[in-house]
């Protein structure tokens, strides 16, 4: 299943879209991850990645970081493929999400637009109107490929069954965060998606940071799956290390890495919205307050924080 071991651009399945095997995952430049830097600072990190050959970035409406990405894209010396995502259910919301991305990123075309965090054929059916709208925008040329992102094996299978263009599944060497099966189940579904011609780029190769101590092994595993690997990178040192790994297989010690964790403030009201938003089922409400279940959080995505009306949750 190895597709490439260099930074040479590859075709993303049958989409006709060219991407670098390393995709810049931009969640670290989001308020969800307590990012407080200036757009220009994020733009500098992105520009360094582009200069080193990264030509693919992944974001989402939820990440609220288009300004930072625009700063980076304006400094790119090559065409950069951009993927974004939306939770939209309705036609109007899907169209608005694409327009927000086009305006926010100052681009006429958003290369890839995904329905965010789909679980199965059932949730995809529930987003049918939004999906239809995305394909309508594709027909008009505002979007080049349509797909979904998922932490679920059933989500990947739904993308294949629905004949989508792209799927963005969670896959890592320990199977951390796969919501409905084992690593092997996800591998099987990803292989089927690639066999069906979908463009595939995997996420959470380092398990939200939990696999950092075995980064070389974990990246080596992820690199074998899909056409590209989306990796969150916070500074130029991480960019240079990741690009170096994709070019040579060597990974220098990443001494600057800080262990992150999820923090819940004591003014939590226990409303439960964070627990509902967590696709991993990692949160529960006990005695009127949110807390992590005993198994903890394996992803540190910060999506629960976005759902909190009182800004109680941060991944720091
Ligand atoms: S608890 Fe929060 S950070 Fe952890 S997986 Fe759930 S939504 Fe993501
Ligand atoms: S959404 Fe915020 S206020 Fe509500 S239970 Fe979760 S942390 Fe507490």
Question: Care to describe what's here?
Answer:
It is a single chain. The protein has 316 residues and is of the alpha/beta class. It folds into 2 domains: 10-248, TIM Barrel (Alpha-Beta Barrel), CATH 3.20.20; 262-315, Alpha-Beta Plaits, CATH 3.30.70. It contains 11 helices and 14 strands. The chain has helices spanning 39-51, 66-73, 91-105, 121-126, 128-140, 153-161, 183-195, 215-222, 236-248, 273-277, 303-307; strands spanning 10-11, 18-19, 22-25, 56-58, 81-86, 110-115, 143-150, 166-169, 199-202, 228-232, 262-264, 283-286, 289-292, 313-315. The strands form 4 sheets. An 8-stranded parallel beta barrel has the order 3-4-5-6-7-8-9-10, surrounded by 5 helices. It binds iron/sulfur cluster (2 copies). The site of one iron/sulfur cluster has 15 residues, from helix 10. One iron/sulfur cluster binds at residues 264, 268-274, 285, 290, 307-308, 310, 312-313.
């Amino acid at each position: 299943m190895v597709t490439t071991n260099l930074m040479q651009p590859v075709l993303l399945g049958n989409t006709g879209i060219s991407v670098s095997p390393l995709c810049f995952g931009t969640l670290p430049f989001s308020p969800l991850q307590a990012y407080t830097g200036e757009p220009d600072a994020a733009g500098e990190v992105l520009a360094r990645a582009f200069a080193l050959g990264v030509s693919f970035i992944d974001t989402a409406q939820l990440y609220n970081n288009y300004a930072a990405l625009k700063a980076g894209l304006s400094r790119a010396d090559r065409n950069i493929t951009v993927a974004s995502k939306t939770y939209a259910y309705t036609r109007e919301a899907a169209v608005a999400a694409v327009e927000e991305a086009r305006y926010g990123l100052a681009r006429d075309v958003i290369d890839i637009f995904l329905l965010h965090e789909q679980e199965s054929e059932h949730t995809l059916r529930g987003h049918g109107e939004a999906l239809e709208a995305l394909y309508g925008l594709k027909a008009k040329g505002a979007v080049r490929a349509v797909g979904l992102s998922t932490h679920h094996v059933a989500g990947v299978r739904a993308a294949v069954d629905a004949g989508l263009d792209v799927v963005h599944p969670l896959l890592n060497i320990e199977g951390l965060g796969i919501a409905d099966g084992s690593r092997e189940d996800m591998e099987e579904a990803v292989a089927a998606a690639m066999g069906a011609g979908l463009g595939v780029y995997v996420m959470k190769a380092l398990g939200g940071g939990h696999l950092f101590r075995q980064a070389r092994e974990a990246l080596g595993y992820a690199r074998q799956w899909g056409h590209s690997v989306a990796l969150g990178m916070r500074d130029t040192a991480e960019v240079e290390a990741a690009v170096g790994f994709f070019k040579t297989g060597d990974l220098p010690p990443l001494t600057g890495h800080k262990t992150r964790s999820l923090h819940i403030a004591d003014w939590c009201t226990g409303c439960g919205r964070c627990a509902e938003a967590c696709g991993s089922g990692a949160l529960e409400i006990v005695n009127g307050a949110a807390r992590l279940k005993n198994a903890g959080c394996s992803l540190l995505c910060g999506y629960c924080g976005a759902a909190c009306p009182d800004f109680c949750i941060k991944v720091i």
